[in-house]
Write a structure and sequence with these properties.
The structure is a homodimer. In chain A, the strands form 3 sheets. Chain A has a 7-stranded mixed β-sheet. Chain A has a 4-stranded mixed β-sheet with strand order 3-6-4-5, with helices on one face. In chain A, helix 2 packs parallel to helix 3, helix 2 runs parallel beside helix 6 and helix 4 crosses helix 5. Chain A is 32% helix and 24% strand. The first copy, chain A, folds into 2 domains: 139 residues, PurM-like, N-terminal domain (60s Ribosomal Protein L30, Chain: A, 2-Layer Sandwich), CATH 3.30.1330; 168 residues, PurM-like C-terminal domain (Phosphoribosyl-aminoimidazole Synthetase, Chain A, domain 2, Alpha-Beta Complex). Chain A contains 9 helices and 13 strands. Chain A is globular. Chain A is an alpha+beta fold. Chains A and B meet through strand 2, strand 3, helix 2, strand 4 and strand 5 of A and strand 2, strand 3, helix 2, strand 4 and strand 5 of B. Strand 2 of chain A pairs antiparallel with strand 3 of chain B, so a sheet runs across the interface.
């Protein structure tokens, strides 16, 4: 145990600078109380109590302006929320409970106090939604784009990996897919997105609670979050598990803004290729999902949809409604296309 | 415990991209084996075993091109080493043992595989020097400067804070100060730095081992690393501890490249205002330092110098060789001046 009072004064590694003194206070203000933090921001480092026999789960996620987002598309609040949500999603993907995050920010000189206030409020809203606290951070000027790096720390009795899918398992997806991709594609085309799609992009869902509920009510063999899109993330799960995933394209749950799309193949491409939905893909034995689906619907109003099955083999096989093999649905939105 | 084999395939949150696939492998290659990591890079997150009754210590440090370093000044290897060393120094400052780090990189499109190879080798060299492993990371293109954010995780039985200095304590500093500031000032003036100063800037010392040895052999009341310069960091310790620090300027150990400087006040300004020396400032009761100094000299060839004392009061008081109060020595190198 650490003697003395708990410090909550300021993120540890921040540099002194008159310009940033107020911002430091703002970022401090987003820090929720954290029962595990024996020492929060304020010293050279934060100290996290080792949570009994649980594992600590850590990950990091980087958001760069003009690569992952554009300032023209998003409010500063949404930029902060989204960067934090993307990082915390990796804890959901392990069925881990969030403990806290460390946030490093680099912002251009023209970013004023109000800008940083909004950014911090978005980060704080996401932290509160996930029951996570701010354990530390760093702040710098940027002579170029905005840069937000969020490192997350969580705990889990038994973290669920992406590598446990077994032949015979069913594949289940939470929520509806493709909203974020539709928003990004709309902006890239110079159009104002459907408000529901815009919302999906600005406020990615927090699935940390749902993931733990799913893994407590069902024997989930493998779990991954849909950050790169169902197509890519299914390939990750297949490779890590050493199995083949068979996905039935007609059962992929489309985001409401895509449901009545005139070109169904475009809608499907966005739903499976788009990424940044931050929903979950789970592999579990048949007959497991019923109770979990009811619990997720009751507690979170969240759909759980069967999208396929696991077979011996490798890779991902896509089937149409008649069970015929089709090529991987293409589409969506790639980070590295943004600049073009 | 996590079933199944340990994964060491790739940092968790990295995006898929043909361009970066090779780089991912390179960054993987810097990861040393990590006994605490039940699951290393390769899944959505890394899992760190909770180390018995020890505390986990976490911190993050951001390095931005043209703010913290310039590519004209440093090799990519040195950029990677330095960014990692700066972050790990916060573990030394808590007397924590490094466990692992998460590294987020944003690099411009023109950065080729060799560039990233060198960057990764610098990161890896610093990790090995500190007995730390790579627990995860993220990688992105940058449409502007290079960004490197390093989050460190360590453990400590009793982390040593900056807030424990008490009246009557002596103040001790490891190593020699001002080398990094001299290098930066030389470059900024268009001069090639003294090779010893250049070395201090490129390869900041690893004091994680020395810090633990110091705290095991002496009753260290307060500890901080000299990242912002002795003047600024002494103010941090004074404020956190609620005491006055009295520093005798004549006893500040100057870096060898500054010892024979024609203008001693300029040399002193660099030594106390310069920052980025990543040495340690410790407060401990009188008579404690003898054994520690001998141990540090024997094990690390490291000086331990008494630079002053702690009194009741507040702030930092600077004394000259005759014990007269002088104004805070000015000088060094401020990050936010780099652009001017």
């Amino acid at each position: 145990m650490i003697p003395g009072p708990r410090h909550g004064a300021r993120p540890g590694a921040m540099r002194d600078s008159a310009e940033f003194r107020r911002i430091r206070a703002l970022i401090d203000s987003v820090a929720a109380p954290c029962s595990e933090a024996l020492l929060g921001p304020g010293d050279d480092a934060a100290i996290v109590e080792s949570p009994g026999r649980q594992c600590l789960v850590v990950s990091t996620d980087l958001s760069v302006e003009r690569v992952h987002f554009r300032r023209e598309w998003l409010t500063w609040n949404a930029i902060g929320f989204r960067a934090t949500a993307a990082a915390i999603s990796d804890l959901a993907a392990m069925a881990a409970r969030p403990i806290g995050v460390l946030v490093s920010l680099a912002v251009p000189p023209e970013a004023d106090a109000r800008t940083l206030d909004e950014l911090a409020s978005g980060i704080g809203e996401c932290l509160r939604e996930n029951g996570a606290c701010l354990l530390g951070g760093d702040l710098s000027q940027s002579p170029g784009p905005v840069f937000i790096d969020v490192t997350v720390i969580g705990s889990a009795d038994v973290p669920v990996r992406r590598s446990g899918a077994r032949p015979g398992d069913e594949l289940w997806v939470t929520g509806r897919l493709g909203g974020a991709a539709l928003a990004a594609a709309s902006w890239a085309a110079g159009l104002e997105p459907d408000p529901r799609a815009r919302r999906a992009f600005e406020r990615p869902p927090s699935r940390t609670g749902a993931a733990r509920m799913l893994c407590e009510t069902a024997d989930v063999h493998a779990l991954i979050d849909l950050s790169d899109g169902l197509a890519g993330d299914a390939e990750q799960m297949a490779a890590a598990s050493g199995v083949r995933l068979v996905v039935e394209s007609a059962r992929v749950p489309l985001h409401p803004a895509l449901e009545d799309w005139a070109q169904p193949e475009v809608a499907l491409g966005m739903a499976v290729g788009g990424g940044e939905d931050y929903e979950l893909l789970a592999a579990m034995p048949p007959g497991m999902a019923g109770v979990a689906a009811a619990e997720l619907a009751r507690e979170y109003g969240l759909d759980l949809s069967c999208v396929g099955r696991v077979e011996a083999g490798e890779g991902v096989e896509w089937h149409d409604a008649r069970g015929e093999i089709i090529s991987r649905p293409a589409g969506g939105f790639d980070h590295f296309d943004v600049e073009s």
